[in-house]
Specification:
Layout lengths: L16 E3 L2 H10 L8 E2 H10 L5 H12 L6 E2 L4 H11 L2 E3 L1
Antiparallel strand pairs: 1-4, 2-3
C-alpha cells in the first residue's frame, strides 16, 4: 500500500487543514502577550511562531519584526499589528479543521 504524503487528507473521514484567518491569528497573537503590556516582544513572537509549528520560529520572529515594527522599538504594538497579521497570513500556517 503506498504511503499517503498529502498533508491535506481527503474527505475520507479525516480532518483537513486550512490556513488561519486574519481574525484567528489576531486572537492567537494576543494570547501570546504573556506580560499583558499589549505589546509583542521578539521572545513572545518567537514563542507564537513556535506554537504555529514554524520550522524556524527565530527567523520568523526576526522577519516579523522587520515587517511590522515601524518605530523600531523591538515590540509590535496594537498599531503595528495589521502588518504582523498580513505577514503571518501570507505564510498560510495550517489550522486543523
Amino acid at each position: 500500500m503506498p504511503l499517503n504524503l498529502n498533508p491535506f487528507p481527503t474527505r475520507e473521514g479525516k480532518s483537513t487543514s486550512v490556513p488561519y484567518t486574519k481574525q484567528q491569528l489576531q486572537e492567537f497573537f494576543k494570547q501570546h502577550d504573556k506580560d499583558g503590556d499589549k505589546l509583542l516582544s521578539k521572545v513572545e513572537l518567537k514563542k507564537a511562531f513556535d506554537d504555529l509549528q514554524s520550522r524556524n520560529p527565530g527567523f520568523r520572529a526576526w522577519r516579523a519584526m522587520g515587517k511590522a515594527d515601524a518605530d523600531g522599538d523591538q515590540h509590535i504594538s496594537q498599531q503595528e499589528m495589521e502588518a504582523l497579521l498580513d505577514y503571518a497570513v501570507g505564510i498560510k500556517y495550517p489550522f486543523k479543521a
